[in-house]
């Protein structure tokens, strides 16, 4: 009989930034009672996931152990932490625990999917502890960029764990509780077995700056503007939304919120009473009656998303509001790697409109919500864990964070998605490798990232598509000529004759010299037609298209 | 009778970075004799041009005026300036003039396309001037990052123009001639009508640093490494390749070149005698016999390109060489916006291998080849043009550069692709708007960017593809049921039955209730089938696929 063990298993977020989902378990091997921390999404891109709507963690491992899941704890209301709770609710059926604001956002998501309100339980902050099987879990306030962001204090029979959640060390964070070193020292004073820790900014060498430092510079910038000012940030960066709105109010401007996410976040913050000094807001309709030099618009689309308010303003109008020469557009956000092209596109569109664009290159109008390297070290020093397990980072971030830990004499564990760590006893070990991956929300369907569906779409995007239709009569003889339809391919190539006709001629020739055995055999016939069409296209246009063969037999 | 005029017309490169192609003309309106400066390419991306191999300027306007083109002058051998000469040679048939190194590279391209060697004429540097109709054109050396980079001095009946080409102000550029302020002052002393000027780094506020400052830091870095060192930069950044190789030699390492472009560039530089102190190079085969701590590999793929040497090393092996724990990989290059994901991918792969990656975030291992804002102003001050026309920039760069000019009392002209500027007389005016655009090299075929071919591919990538096959008998009655093939779509959706079967059932129903008039009419039938299939998919999987309808009539 093996004895009880304490395990940690990242299913998402360790080896990537986004899609956070971490499992803790305690019990006999293979029978551990489980809790899940966060259930977030990642965002698709054209390179690797065209047409996909959202990326969810692959929760197959959890589904197969559904009866062992005690609860899901959500640290804060950012999409990469809470975005998948409703998408996975049916499969997991586990209660979701969160603080008031996070729960409000989670409940909105549940409602959209028709799940019950009580799927999400509101719990108070530390020192309250929520029991969950062998675990007791407390929400320990930590500063980030959204209300009520919390680390989790996870008490286990093997000792106390701290799961940092997303954080920065900020004494004036604007929204959410300031980092409280005394409280943290007290919580950690009797020893912490392991700190599972945010790694996002491990490569940023300087101490992070406080959200509180931004207000005056943004206010000055807005005051300097002679036209309308439009500012964008992540709607979920509620701290920034408030910083911007407050600066705008001080500069004598009326605040307008544009974009659904922007309105939803502010609404949730007001509803839950976590942001009661937000300036009054005017509607886009009322804004039209206010001189443009008295307006500050806060809009979605800081990453250049094509459908967001910022991109629509850049293309022309949004909700009756138009930007004009002399207006100012402020990016109070960092461009996430991979989004540069979209952002540059709208900057150039604003340039064409004569709008002055201000970005964060001066360092005055944006600060990160994550702890830089010295701030990570501050947390290490406060928590003094036996073991440090970096999370919320790509492989390079985790590796660097482990190096820092080891440099300070803390045991560092580089655990990527699927690597189950046994934290029992004094030396963490790899207990098992679990198959993990990504699930795509594609339209209304969840598909596996490796199912081949998206791979086929990428191939069609690269190579175009040809449909071949052949009709065979009762004697398996071709009835008429083969027929070709193309999509995403040039109409003519090297010989200047229509490409479809050239392929059709080659296919007819292939059928003409095919033996009866081939014509009778669907697989052989398909294979031969496909190969012929691809070769024909290669000769003519230098490209081998994807091919669909439709053989209709009248027999 | 209108009088002669001097025109400037960008066909590529003004309103984008890449694909440079600028036209100058002199003569009666509509009868100007023309010269073209540069004929470059841009690079495709998955977002907007999946499957495309290269992007060329649309030269339709030039083709229609082929008999009026005197010559094409190429300022330097970077792909965005020389990359399209061979692709457009047949259509334009104009002689190409360039200095020795640039001509060597251009001739290699011509040879690959089977064009004659004498398509490219080698000309000497200033004070030599090449006549071209009403123009006399001189190659005035200017520092950049590739040998023999030159501005063009274009003498016209309306006065002297300076086309800067790509440049930085560098007194120790490593390769190519140092910037020579005295020579430039002399050339410009009698007045310059217009400076057409690189704008790439107009937003960089600090003076640029010299290539010559990098060597010692790179040497120190290589000396600090205990394993193999691999460094990547653009192969066409010949200055950097030399800086790296020299630093490696000083650090006691043997130099290995990996990647075709890397070898080709060094070969061309040695062949033309513009880089005679390049360290000796060992082959990848011989490198295997040398201890890894004595090796410096210079490899292609600084932008994370999947097929380049760096990406292959990150995935495992390249030409028998493998990277190992403790090796170092240096990015001596900037990541071009849009390439971040590819670069991050290989950084993480190296991290998994235990390879330490050093990038340019310290500012020690890379400097730009373009003039920063103060250096642009230096050139303005030396040239003292009446008019400044920014080029080689997106709209935002051109706009900012115009602002700088106007701030100094120089007339600034914001001319984007297709905007023909009349430079005659004392005040530049817009003479005409010319249709311009992009031509895609797609496999072996050139297609218009707006032909719809690539748009269809993008749609298939986003929405998947459905083929519908229907056979109608002699009486226009369906023979059997409609048939559906899918590509890039999930097999099942909401109802858990196979999606293809659900669509087929809906199509059968549609055919069943279609009147004879519809069944007889190809357009109506196609339209109805397509609409039915898309709606059926929307209900089932929340996505409307692209559809190819094949109706076969046995009549």
UniProtKB/TrEMBL annotation, chains A, B:
Coiled-coil region: none
Metallo-beta-lactamase domain residues: 18-218
Keywords for this protein: Exonuclease, Hydrolase, Metal-binding, Nuclease, RNA-binding, Zinc
SUPFAM superfamilies assigned to the protein according to its UniProt record, in alphabetical order: Metallo-hydrolase/oxidoreductase
Tagged with keyword Zinc: yes
Pfam families: Lactamase_B, RMMBL, RNase_J_b_CASP, RNase_J_C
GO MF, one example: metal ion binding
Keyword Nucleotide-binding: no
InterPro entries to which the protein is assigned, alphabetical: Metallo-B-lactamas, RibonucZ/Hydroxyglut_hydro, RMMBL, RNase_J_2, RNase_J_b_CASP, RNase_J_C, RNase_J_CS
Protein name: MBL fold hydrolase
Species annotation: Sulfitobacter alexandrii
């Amino acid at each position: 009989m093996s004895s009880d063990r304490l395990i940690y298993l990242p299913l998402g977020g360790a080896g990537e930034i986004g899609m956070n989902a971490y499992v803790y378990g305690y019990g006999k091997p293979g029978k551990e009672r489980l809790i899940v921390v966060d259930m977030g999404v990642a965002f698709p891109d054209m390179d690797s996931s065209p047409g996909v709507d959202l990326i969810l963690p692959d929760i197959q491992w959890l589904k197969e152990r559904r009866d062992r899941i005690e609860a899901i704890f959500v640290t804060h209301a950012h999409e990469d932490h809470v975005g998948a709770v409703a998408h996975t609710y049916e499969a997991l059926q586990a209660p979701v625990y969160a603080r008031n604001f996070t729960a409000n956002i989670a409940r909105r998501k549940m409602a959209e999917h028709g799940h019950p309100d009580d799927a999400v339980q509101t719990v108070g902050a530390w020192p309250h502890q929520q029991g969950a099987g062998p675990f007791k879990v407390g929400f320990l306030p930590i500063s980030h960029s959204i209300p009520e962001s919390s680390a989790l204090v996870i008490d286990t029979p093997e000792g106390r764990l701290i799961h940092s959640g997303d954080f920065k060390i900020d004494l004036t964070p604007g929204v959410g509780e300031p980092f409280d070193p005394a409280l943290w020292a007290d919580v950690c004073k009797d020893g912490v077995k392991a700190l599972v820790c945010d790694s996002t900014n491990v490569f940023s060498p300087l101490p992070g700056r406080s959200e509180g430092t931004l207000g005056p510079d943004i206010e000055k910038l807005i005051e300097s503007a002679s036209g309308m000012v439009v500012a964008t940030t992540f709607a979920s960066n509620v701290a920034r939304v408030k910083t911007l709105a407050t600066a705008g109010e001080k500069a004598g401007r009326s605040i307008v919120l544009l974009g659904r996410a922007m309105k939803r976040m502010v609404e949730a913050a007001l509803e839950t009473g976590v942001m009661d000094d937000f300036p009054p807001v005017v509607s886009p309709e009322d804004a039209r009656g206010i001189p443009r030099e008295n307006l500050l618009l806060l809009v979605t689309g800081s990453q250049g998303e094509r459908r967001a308010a910022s991109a629509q303003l850049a293309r022309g109008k949004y909700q009756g509001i138009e930007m004009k020469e002399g207006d100012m557009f402020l990016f109070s956000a960092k461009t996430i790697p991979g989004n540069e092209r979209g952002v540059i596109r709208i900057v150039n569109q604003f340039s064409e409109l004569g709008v002055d664009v201000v970005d964060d290159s001066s360092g005055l109008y944006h600060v990160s919500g994550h702890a830089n390297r010295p701030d990570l070290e501050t947390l290490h020093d406060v928590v003094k864990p036996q073991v440090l397990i970096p999370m919320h980072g790509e492989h390079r971030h985790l590796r660097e964070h482990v190096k820092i830990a080891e440099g300070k004499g803390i045991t560092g564990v580089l655990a990527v998605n699927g690597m189950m760590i046994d934290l029992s006893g004094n030396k963490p070990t790899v207990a098992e490798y679990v198959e993990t991956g990504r699930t795509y929300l594609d339209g209304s369907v969840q598909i596996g990232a490796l199912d081949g569906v998206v791979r086929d779409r990428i191939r069609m995007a690269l190579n175009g598509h040809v449909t071949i239709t052949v009709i065979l009569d009762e004697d398996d003889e071709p009835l008429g000529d083969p027929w070709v339809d193309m999509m995403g391919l040039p109409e003519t190539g090297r010989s200047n004759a229509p490409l479809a006709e050239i392929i059709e001629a080659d296919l007819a020739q292939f059928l003409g010299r095919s033996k009866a055995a081939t014509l009778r055999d669907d697989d052989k016939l398909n294979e031969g037609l496909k190969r012929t069409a691809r070769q024909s296209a290669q000769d003519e246009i230098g490209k081998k298209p994807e091919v669909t063969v439709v053989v209709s037999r009248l027999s």
